[in-house]
Amino acid sequence: MPIKLSITDSTFEEEFVKLLGMKREADADVDAAVAEIIADVRARGDEAVVEYTNRFDRLSIDAQGMAVTREEVDLAISDIEPSLLESLKTAATRIRAYHEKQMPTDERYTDESGVELGWRWRAVSAAGLYVPGGLASYPSSVLMNAIPAKVAGVERLVMVVPTPDNKMNPLVLAAARIAGVDEIYRIGGAQAVAALAYGTQTIRPVDKIVGPGNAFVAAAKRRVFGQVGIDMIAGPSEILVVADGSNDPSWVAADLLSQAEHDPVAQSILITDDANFADAVQKAIDVHLETLPRAEIAGASWRDFGAVVLVENLDQAPALVDRLAPEHLELAVDDPDALAEKIHHAGAIFLGRYTPEAIGDYVAGPNHVLPTARSARFSSGLGVLDFIKRSSLIKCTPESLAKIGPAAIALAHSEGLQAHGLSVAIRSNRM
Ligand SMILES: NC(=O)c1ccc[n+]([C@@H]2O[C@H](COP(=O)([O-])OP(=O)(O)OC[C@H]3O[C@@H](n4cnc5c(N)ncnc54)[C@H](O)[C@@H]3O)[C@@H](O)[C@H]2O)c1
Ligand SMILES: N[C@H](CO)Cc1c[nH]c[nH+]1
Ligand SMILES: [Zn+2]
């Protein structure tokens, strides 16, 4: 059974802190294994990537077999039911439209001293897109990774996706084609992240690696950061539902299970002010689990990492939500906007009883690659900004340099950096 907490219990704070500290991610063993894999890929390149891929995903490929060919993609697409392809295209269109609105503009202005200042945005040259493929493979995650990169203007999109037991979801390849991915490799885990970061004989390195994955992927991304950029740590999925007693318990139960079914270490939490409603949700979860094909995973996740938090009234919810900083937050209340105003930390907020988190996973438009494990306190969901960077622009004239230069010279001297001072003074003196 999931943890049950009541804000009126004397042990609440202690129990809540335990909930915050629940470890669902990379432990020391995972990190040590990942460090070894990365070092091996750096040393041996393709040979190591192929070895790990064959071992973990039960394949028997060689270096050439890592790449998914154009013909394979054509063949996969030709087999897909047209209406499914249409759904994928609908999702792609909506995701693209949303991300196009995120594109920031360049700025240029002249300040009161006559100095021209500004900034401009440029895309990274090559992006590595990690698409999970272990427990399930997600065509939607291909779109969520690739479309913002394309909108940002990234020239080379390299996708990696593991294919355990050589099973590749054709829709994953269709999504890659629709989104404009340039290269696809059937590799995953830490070895794929290392290959993207350091390059191998077959795979050219990229500048930034994005996308969700399991504990091995998350640990590898942390380790290669610096060699390449990374987006965030998007680990096992999470959902936090804040619901009053006027909801249909069976809807809320389905929402909690929607993320629990991703992974036995996913986390679903309900905050409510109605104890009877909480019991009804638990009953509805049991009923849903009888029919869901992934009941084993969802049931384990709810049992081991689920939680129900009972508050006296929903005004107490925002402070708890902020401490949990969930990946997904559903506000199933009468005035979700008012409640959302009081909350600062959540990857994505789903407002109202008719906005299930699952709509955001597929077709709403915003990105479903979101910060987990409380990292929504300091990071955001994947978007166009992850694929571009800003260069500052500074342009002085003789007059404006003479105006602001003396302060620079004084500061340079105070830091003992005479050449700095000289490079400003030498120009000012010529005026
Ligand atoms: N936060 C998000 O935005 C988001 C989005 C989609 C999915 N997810 C999460 O991504 C995760 C996907 O995980 P997954 O496992 O299905 O796929 P995955 O592709 O992340 O991991 C599979 C790979 O893990 C590696 N691996 C497995 N066991 C290993 C071992 N013992 N030693 C070394 N490497 C090993 C293998 O290389 C394998 O190919 C889930 O937790 C899901 O909830 C998160
Ligand atoms: N909910 C996941 C992000 O945590 C993304 C996803 C993909 N497919 C379905 N859901
Ligand atoms: Zn999901």
From TrEMBL:
<dbReference type="InterPro" id="IPR001692">
    <property type="entry name" value="Histidinol_DH_CS"/>
</dbReference>
<protein>
    <recommendedName>
        <fullName>Histidinol dehydrogenase</fullName>
        <ecNumber>1.1.1.23</ecNumber>
    </recommendedName>
</protein>
<feature type="binding site">
    <location>
        <position position="328"/>
    </location>
    <ligand>
        <name>substrate</name>
    </ligand>
</feature>
<dbReference type="GO" id="GO:0000105">
    <property type="term" value="P:L-histidine biosynthetic process"/>
</dbReference>
<keyword id="KW-0028">Amino-acid biosynthesis</keyword>
<keyword id="KW-0479">Metal-binding</keyword>
<comment type="similarity">
    <text>Belongs to the histidinol dehydrogenase family.</text>
</comment>
<feature type="active site" description="Proton acceptor">
    <location>
        <position position="328"/>
    </location>
</feature>
<dbReference type="GO" id="GO:0005829">
    <property type="term" value="C:cytosol"/>
</dbReference>
<dbReference type="InterPro" id="IPR022695">
    <property type="entry name" value="Histidinol_DH_monofunct"/>
</dbReference>
<feature type="binding site">
    <location>
        <position position="191"/>
    </location>
    <ligand>
        <name>NAD(+)</name>
    </ligand>
</feature>
<feature type="binding site">
    <location>
        <position position="259"/>
    </location>
    <ligand>
        <name>Zn(2+)</name>
    </ligand>
</feature>
<feature type="binding site">
    <location>
        <position position="130"/>
    </location>
    <ligand>
        <name>NAD(+)</name>
    </ligand>
</feature>
<keyword id="KW-0520">NAD</keyword>
<comment type="pathway">
    <text>Amino-acid biosynthesis; L-histidine biosynthesis; L-histidine from 5-phospho-alpha-D-ribose 1-diphosphate: step 9/9.</text>
</comment>
<feature type="binding site">
    <location>
        <position position="237"/>
    </location>
    <ligand>
        <name>substrate</name>
    </ligand>
</feature>
<dbReference type="GO" id="GO:0008270">
    <property type="term" value="F:zinc ion binding"/>
</dbReference>
<feature type="binding site">
    <location>
        <position position="361"/>
    </location>
    <ligand>
        <name>Zn(2+)</name>
    </ligand>
</feature>
<feature type="binding site">
    <location>
        <position position="415"/>
    </location>
    <ligand>
        <name>substrate</name>
    </ligand>
</feature>
<feature type="binding site">
    <location>
        <position position="259"/>
    </location>
    <ligand>
        <name>substrate</name>
    </ligand>
</feature>
<comment type="function">
    <text>Catalyzes the sequential NAD-dependent oxidations of L-histidinol to L-histidinaldehyde and then to L-histidine.</text>
</comment>
<feature type="binding site">
    <location>
        <position position="420"/>
    </location>
    <ligand>
        <name>substrate</name>
    </ligand>
</feature>
<dbReference type="GO" id="GO:0004399">
    <property type="term" value="F:histidinol dehydrogenase activity"/>
</dbReference>
<feature type="binding site">
    <location>
        <position position="214"/>
    </location>
    <ligand>
        <name>NAD(+)</name>
    </ligand>
</feature>
<keyword id="KW-0368">Histidine biosynthesis</keyword>
<dbReference type="GO" id="GO:0051287">
    <property type="term" value="F:NAD binding"/>
</dbReference>
<feature type="binding site">
    <location>
        <position position="262"/>
    </location>
    <ligand>
        <name>substrate</name>
    </ligand>
</feature>
<dbReference type="Pfam" id="PF00815">
    <property type="entry name" value="Histidinol_dh"/>
</dbReference>
<dbReference type="InterPro" id="IPR012131">
    <property type="entry name" value="Hstdl_DH"/>
</dbReference>
<feature type="binding site">
    <location>
        <position position="420"/>
    </location>
    <ligand>
        <name>Zn(2+)</name>
    </ligand>
</feature>
<keyword id="KW-0862">Zinc</keyword>
<feature type="binding site">
    <location>
        <position position="361"/>
    </location>
    <ligand>
        <name>substrate</name>
    </ligand>
</feature>
<feature type="binding site">
    <location>
        <position position="262"/>
    </location>
    <ligand>
        <name>Zn(2+)</name>
    </ligand>
</feature>
<dbReference type="InterPro" id="IPR016161">
    <property type="entry name" value="Ald_DH/histidinol_DH"/>
</dbReference>
<feature type="active site" description="Proton acceptor">
    <location>
        <position position="327"/>
    </location>
</feature>
<keyword id="KW-0560">Oxidoreductase</keyword>
